[in-house]
Amino acid sequence: MINNQFILEKFGFLGEDFLNELHENAVITDIKSKTEIIREGQKNKYVPFLIKGSIKVFTLNDGRELIYYYIKPNDSCLMTFSSIFTDYTSRIYAIAEEESEVILIPVSVIHGWLIRFPEINRIFYHEYDKRFSDVMNMVNDAVFHRLDKRVLNYIRQQISATGNNPLKITHREIASNLGTSREVVSRVLKKIENEGEILQTKEGIKIPVNEKFKSV
């Protein structure tokens, strides 16, 4: 059954006729953690809206990930939406970072809604603004910040996205997501641990409770 509270908060402004059509066409599904949702080159059949959980959107280059952004609850995937205006082919990979629940709307239905319910564009304009900011932050982080700051920012982002502190993640996963080697990440983590920025425990990597989860 579709989460009615989510529907009303996300789409209520579009009116009763739209909500009736949404209930007729939308599909709700649960996605297990670490499950691939779509990969580059696949055809996009649905536009997803995340109810709960976290989804990582990225590309691959020589086996290394370049993260574009994370989809959080109440968000959609802008790059999936943008593909429906071309050939429906995905240019990204998307993987559930944790147990997630999504609403899937067929792209053919979205096409019709853009004509009959043009106010729906407000949702996607909002998504564009957020995703543009995410990508700009990613570029600034890569260009202007040292690797230790990038690693610390990444850990903070993951804790903020998942709500898990400590964060259960391997050095290899961090290295893959930041486009470096596991050995380098291990040295950096030891350095920032010695500086008191993190704690490495059997349960995972922890940010001290007096730390604020914000980029530096």
From TrEMBL:
User: What PROSITE patterns does UniProt report for this protein, alphabetically?
Assistant: HTH_CRP_2
Q: Which CDD domains match?
A: CAP_ED
One Pfam assignment? HTH_Crp_2
Q: Does the keyword RNA-binding apply?
A: no
In terms of InterPro entries, this protein maps to: cNMP-bd_dom, cNMP-bd_dom_sf, HTH_CRP, RmlC-like_jellyroll, WH-like_DNA-bd_sf, WH_DNA-bd_sf
Keyword annotations from UniProtKB, A to Z? DNA-binding, Transcription, Transcription regulation
Ranges where the HTH crp-type domain occurs: 145-211
Q: Which domain of life is it from?
A: Bacteria
Q: Name one GO biological process term.
A: regulation of DNA-templated transcription
State the Gene Ontology terms under molecular function: DNA binding
Native organism: Chryseobacterium luteum
According to UniProt, the name of this protein is Crp/Fnr family transcriptional regulator
